[in-house]
Write a structure and sequence with these properties.
1 helix; mainly alpha; about 55 residues; Oxalate:formate antiporter
């Protein structure tokens, strides 16, 4: 049987650091993807026409 007095707990600081390491690149990638995807759906503005002289 396992000895219940020999259980190790993870440090909350270590867990927070691990989440930060995961969240920051994920947030950057999501931001980058959304900004580039919005270019597809943006309405193209027609080029200004110059009146003939």
């Amino acid at each position: 049987m396992a000895d219940s007095t020999n259980i190790k707990k993870s440090s909350p600081l270590l867990i927070a650091a691990a989440w930060i390491i995961v969240i920051i690149p994920t947030a950057w990638g999501l931001d980058y993807t959304v900004k580039n995807a919005l270019k597809i759906f943006a309405t193209a503005t027609p080029a200004p026409t110059v009146p003939a002289k």
